[in-house]
Design goal:
The chain is an alpha/beta fold and about 750 residues long. The chain has helices at about 15-25, 25-45, 80-90, 95-100, 120-125, 135-145, 165-225, 230, 240-275, 280-290, 295-315, 320-415, 435-460, 470-475, 490-495, 500-515, 535-545, 565-570, 575-580, 585-590, 615-630, 645-650, 665-680, 700-710, 715-735, 745-750, 755-760; strands spanning about 50-60, 145-150, 155-165, 420-425, 480-485, 520-525, 550-555, 590, 600, 630-635, 655-660, 685-690. It has four domains: about 15-45 and about 435-460, no CATH class; about 50-190 and about 420-425, Alpha-Beta Plaits (2-Layer Sandwich), CATH 3.30.70.1130; about 240-415; about 470-715, P-loop containing nucleotide triphosphate hydrolases (Rossmann fold, 3-Layer(aba) Sandwich), CATH 3.40.50.300. The strands form two sheets. It has an eight-stranded mixed β-sheet, with helices on both faces. The protein has a four-stranded antiparallel β-sheet with strand order 2-3-1-4. Helix 4 packs across helix 7 (about 165-225) and helix 9 (about 240-275) runs antiparallel to helix 12.
Length: about 750
């Protein structure tokens, strides 16, 4: 069968069942890691000393007095996350915590004995020598590590939690921190207010002196300029003089005249530009610009009627017809009237623009005269009014400073107890919060499970061996022709009704239908490394062929480590080596088996001088001869990676099968074995995936799961007797230390069964 090109093969995508398969296969690793983490968590939990927690809850507001101030300042009800985050940091600052650390009393005001004060107690708790104390920075860091500040969700309530091995100490520290923070807020506000009021009072005194000085200068200048009392005594008299009011009125009129002139002038220019394009565009534009025009629309309507009638007449009469000529003359008359009306409208607009221009020039002259009058008045009283405006500004500044000083002085005296209010004081805890056995156990269970699963997937990632059929087809680019479950017995001893036979029947069918040539009948089974089950595979495959009625010869051509004679239970004294060395004939070395259609050719004893005997003309003659005698001939071989005999056999036979054991060797080694087979014979039919654990890997259930469940399920009689017999044989082998270990997993399974059990099933 041709191998599929990797370029044409679709990319493999992981399914959820693939992950579940990894978890099932690596469940012992997951369980071991999980137990280790859980037991470690329990051990650490029981070793840790109990820790108590006390929490004080406070309400924090922005700086404001308990009652509204004179200026009407109210408490801000909105929630400000930045303000709350800032206050969290202030609570944990040295300015708030250092008074707590050095406090000689507890929260109730009772004086603490020297050994119960915080720094000595913490120093002793941390294991410092007698007389050695923590410095301020170390004590601050210790308290900071053992406290927690958090906010009640969507509220202005803040919880300060302190942890300590002594419940009373935790409660005292929490209450002292709340009190220290409140005192710090109030003291900080009072200090800021005092400094601000002092600055305001100093500025107020300076402003009073400036106003008095300007008042004296103003009185002296009023007398010198002989300003009337009504003007002098009126605030802002200069700004409301008659000349300035007249100038203001003229400026407004000038602005309106300019707007009218610009409007009509631009409209006229646009209409003249449109007239240059054509009278039709001008006519439409004037109707849009001057909707009040009545005569022009009437003439246009008359022209439309005349044109319609003329068009109808021209369909029936020639232009020389009197009626047609009359309508044509009427049309010319109306067009001249429309043109004259359009020109008249433009002339009227020109006259109107000229009128607006004259009015604009007149108002401009009046504005110039008014400005000269205002300038003359300003020249007379400018110095006085400038000084008066300065005096008024300074007076307003003084009044503002005076009002602000009085307001801040009164506000500083108002109480501010509500900016920090203790809603729930801290009390000593009745039971420790750490270690939390239940929480630690839950975390240990979850973390252990996560670590176990992660380690299982990591091991699976490092495992480059063949795991699935997709691995074989993707990495080896070869087709899987057979999937053999784990713990397969020998079919020659179990009979045709063996539960293991179906997997080999599937393999036999795939081999028959995958041959390039129906006459190909010599088959060898190779593997990349030792112990992959090639001998068991070729033994059972030959048995299945023989049970189907074909005449089959099984040749043990693994001259280095022959094992097939042990499976069949015959002598290996003479065999293939004797034939190749011309010591015996073919009939003398071929032996019969319990199956009438299955013959067996043992390997025989291999003398050291006969190494490389497989690569001989005698061996080629043997292959050709048995190919003609038997329907199918099967050749066992050594691992292809270590011995050259396997490569030689692959080059001589018609079909080669590569056995790959599930999860044993790296894929690179298997790929190399496949390349060697293709290089020497290019007759690789496919891959046989061997030793699959159907009970653990549900990926292969649909290949062999039915037979596994039927014969090995917990309810089947065969499965129960087989397991019972296996346990007896295992105990017997443990007692007999001199017993020889089986060569393969299949041999162990076969030896574990009693003859009676095999005969019955």
């Amino acid at each position: 069968m041709q191998s599929t090109s990797s370029s044409a093969r679709p990319q493999t995508e992981f399914h959820f069942l693939d992950y579940w398969r990894i978890i099932r296969i690596r469940k012992m690793v997951i369980l071991a890691v999980w137990l280790l983490v859980v037991l470690t968590t329990l051990a650490v939990t029981f070793v840790l000393k109990p820790t108590y927690a006390s929490t004080v809850r406070i309400e924090i507001e922005k700086d404001a007095t308990d009652i509204p101030t004179i200026g009407g300042q109210q408490r801000d009800p909105s929630f400000d996350p930045y303000f709350m985050a800032t206050e969290f940091e202030k609570i944990q600052s040295m300015s708030v915590l250092m008074p707590v650390i050095h406090s000689p009393t507890n929260a109730a005001g009772e004086k603490l004995p020297p050994d119960r004060q915080f720094i000595p107690a913490w120093s002793k708790r941390l294991g410092l020598r007698d007389g050695e104390l923590l410095n301020e920075q170390e004590a601050y860091q210790y308290l900071l590590r053992n406290m927690e500040v958090k906010q009640s969700r969507n509220t202005k309530l803040v919880e300060i939690t302190v942890y300590s091995p002594i419940p009373e100490e935790a409660a005292d520290l929490a209450n002292l921190i709340a009190a220290s923070y409140k005192n710090w807020r109030q003291h900080s506000r009072r200090e800021h207010m005092t400094n601000a009021i002092a600055v305001l009072q100093q500025k107020l005194e300076e402003q009073n002196a400036r106003v008095e000085r300007l008042q004296k200068q103003l009185d002296q200048l009023r007398l010198e300029l002989n300003i009337p009392d009504t003007v002098a005594g009126t605030a802002g008299a200069y700004s409301i003089s008659t000349e300035r009011e007249r100038l203001s009125t003229l400026l407004q009129a000038l602005q309106q005249a300019r707007s009218d002139l610009v409007y009509w002038k631009s409209k006229l220019q646009e209409l003249e530009r449109i007239r240059d394009k054509g009278l039709q565009d001008l006519r439409d534009a004037i109707l849009t610009v001057m909707p009040s025009e009545a005569l022009l629309p009437k003439r246009i309507d008359d022209l439309d009627v005349v044109e319609q009638n003329l068009s109808k007449l021209l369909k029936d009469y020639t232009p020389e017809n009197p009626e047609v000529q009359r309508y044509m003359a009427l049309k010319d008359t109306l067009q001249k009237q429309i043109t004259n009306r359009l020109n008249g409208i433009l002339e009227g607009m020109r006259a109107q623009v000229a009128s607006f221009k004259a009015r604009y020039d007149e108002i401009s002259n009046q504005v110039a005269q008014a400005e000269r009058a205002v300038a003359e008045e300003a020249a007379r009283f400018s110095q006085y009014f400038d000084l008066k405006r300065q005096w008024e500004n300074e007076q307003r500044i003084r009044d503002t400073l005076l009002l602000r000083t009085l307001q801040e002085t009164i506000d500083s005296a108002l109480p501010t107890e509500s900016v920090v209010e203790v809603t729930d004081p801290a009390v000593p805890a009745l039971k420790p919060v750490r270690p939390d056995l239940f929480l630690n156990l839950v975390l240990g269970v979850v973390f252990g499970l996560v670590m176990g699963v992660g380690l299982a997937f990591f091991i699976e990632y490092l495992d480059t061996s063949v795991k699935t059929i997709d691995d074989v087809e993707r990495s080896l680019e070869a087709t899987v022709v057979g999937v053999i479950p784990q713990n397969i017995g020998l079919l020659i001893k179990e009979g045709p009704d063996s539960p293991h036979a179906e997997a080999y029947r599937v393999l036999r069918t795939n081999v028959l239908f995958s041959r390039k040539n129906p006459n190909d009948n010599t088959i060898t089974v190779v593997s990349g490394g030792a112990g992959e089950g090639k001998s068991t595979t070729i033994m059972n495959l030959a048995t299945v062929f023989a049970q189907n009625g074909e005449r089959v010869l099984l040749v043990d051509s693994d001259l280095r480590r022959p094992s097939l004679h042990k499976f069949i239970g015959v002598s290996n004294s003479i065999g293939l080596t004797n034939y190749l060395m011309k010591q015996n004939t073919l009939e003398e070395v071929i032996q019969t088996t319990s199956l009438p259609t299955l013959d067996f050719l043992p390997s025989g004893k291999l003398p050291s001088s006969a190494l490389g005997i497989i690569n001989s003309p005698r061996m080629k003659e043997l292959v050709d001869e048995v190919r003609n005698r038997y329907d199918f001939v099967f050749f066992d071989s050594p691992p292809i990676m270590g011995v050259s005999d396997a490569s030689i056999l692959c080059s001589m036979v018609d079909i080669a099968l590569l056995v790959v054991q599930y999860r044993k060797y790296p894929q690179a080694m298997t790929l190399r074995a496949k390349q060697m087979v293709q290089k020497v014979g290019n007759n690789l039919l496919g891959i046989v995936l061997n030793n699959i654990n159907i009970s653990q890997d549900s990926y292969y259930y649909y290949y062999s799961g039915y037979y596994y469940d039927y014969y090995y399920g917990s309810s089947s009689e065969y499965g129960r007797r087989r397991r019972k017999s296996s346990r007896k044989r295992r105990k017997s082998r443990e007692k007999d230390s001199s017993a020889e270990a089986p060569a393969t997993a299949a041999t162990e399974t076969e030896e574990a069964e009693t003859p009676e059990l095999k005969e019955k099933f």
